[in-house]
Amino acid sequence: MSVHLQDSDDYDGLAAQHVSMRRVLALVAPYRKRIAAVMLLMVVASAIGLAGPFLLRAIIDEALPRNDIGLLVWLVAGMVLVAFLSAAIGAGQVILSSRIGQAVLHDLRVRLYAHLQSLSLRFFTGTRVGEVQSRIASDIDGLQSLVTETADELGRSLSAVVMTAIAILILDWRLALFVLFIVPGTVLISNRVARMREALTYQQQARAADMSVAVQETLSASGIILARTMGRGPHLTQRFARISGDLAKLEVKSHTAGEWQWSLIGFALAVLPAITLLAGGLLMQTGNPATIGTLVAMITLQEQLLWPFEQLLEIGRDTRKTRALFARIFEYLDKPVEITERPDPVAIRRADMRGEVELDHVSFAYREDGRPAVRDISLTIPAGSNVAIVGPTGSGKTTLGYLLARLYDVDSGAIRFDGVDLRDLSFQSLSEMLGVVSQEPYLLHASVAENLRFAKPDATEAELFAAAKIAQIHDHVASLPEGYGTLVGENGYRFSGGEKQRLVLARTILRDPPVLLLDEATSALDTRTERAMSLALARMSKGRTMITIAHRLSTIRHADLIVVMQAGRIVEQGSHDQLVALNGVYASLLRGA
């Protein structure tokens, strides 16, 4: 499995397209007052720290030559006080900046999660789960050092460099020229190395996402069962090894690209004190020489300058790398939200919900240029009726269920609940109006009770039992050693397929919606359990609209209306006896059952 690396120049344009400094700075805008306080502390700390070299010059040029012990004691006390104040202010600054950094990360993580929650099912059917997890966890965690340590170091180093540069100019402008002479070259080298590493970091994070996907897919219960039963464990290990090897190579390249060029910066900074001494010696030959104290203070200031200046260059290099992380995060934040709630949505009180459903010339295609999955569907389902939707595989039954639940929006036409267009209805009203049990039951890695209460957090124990009894699962759960406190396992793997379906059905029943949509909800049940549940659902359906999407036609014979779909259209509708007498698609499905 090969790894294709984008050219850094090509990637630079791509990153700039996704990320601008204004957009990044907008993340910290809510904390500008606290950031201003941190910056003030940094400037004060830098200003206080500058007093040290001047005190040192006074000791060398005045106190020691005069043998003035009193002045020496005062100057030394001043140096001790400067060190103490710098340390105290620095500690407060670190604490405050860390809190700001974590708050920014928290806001970004929650914002990304909330945005993903608002995307339509279309996004999730085309995106790997491990990739989504990587963006929320790995990419945002990669910004940890930037918004905490790096931001703190940036402010501290920048203020130290500016204040120290001013002090050097005040001390002796002639010697200061030697220090400032090396700045342009080092900045150019740092920028070049940063561009190289930025492109590599984007590829590195993408490969890390591939590893997250591999772990999520193959080390889940389903993945282990598949690998063991197919004898593909060694193959999966080899595939994981290739991904890990590619990631390791990218890690090395990301950290070492341009290292030889970067070493030139270290060399230039290392020889600067020697050049300063040489310059001081040359000035001795002039009529206006620098004093010994000035030279010592200058070298001390250089030491104070060089470390934060080198830090600034490293921060600039590493910050460019984090643009790749911002690019990946903003790529998801820029995904358009297809399913939106109107600014003034229609809210229907639970007591006023009747459960009437109307489909008015509904059409929908999964892709703009694709074949419609449903075409010109018109159907009225009276409140309290029992309607079944059947048809061969691929006829559009499940798609119709997705549209009713507004997991997708219709391309044309309208769906109305109690006369209100689905797109005008508030999300809360829709969730209370319609309960959905899909053909792929999903359970959280939590207890049975917690899974049921996901539908109704304040449900009493009696309500849990009642819902479970309707779903024909109460006796089984009650017989378990931990009862309703039993942990269901990853995606319910401690329960059989039929038991999971019944738990999911119980969860939806607990919500007590006026419209219940069952999408193959009994497909994993044995005939005896299915019959018992059908009787329970029949008792429950009084006053409730039931929409059943089914392959097993034995479960819907007594429906008030059976709708037959084929190739995305309604081709027949009527009662069981009427459709059998018609001897059309439904009768053909019965014969093939």
Structure description:
With 593 residues, the protein is an alpha/beta fold. The strands form two sheets. The protein has a six-stranded mixed beta sheet, sandwiched between helices. Helix 3 (32-66) packs antiparallel against helix 13 (292-333). It has helices spanning 8-18, 21-26, 32-66, 69-118, 121-125, 129-142, 144-171, 173-181, 183-218, 221-230, 233-256, 259-284, 292-333, 397-404, 427-433, 448-453, 461-470, 474-479, 497-511, 527-540, 576-582, 585-592, and strands spanning 357-364, 374-381, 386-390, 412-417, 420-421, 434-437, 515-519, 545-549, 561-566, 569-574. Residues 1-18 have low confidence and may be disordered. It has 22 helices and ten strands. This is Multidrug ABC transporter ATP-binding protein. It is a multi-pass membrane protein. Keywords: ATP-binding, Cell membrane, Membrane, Nucleotide-binding, Sugar transport, Transmembrane, Transmembrane helix, Transport.
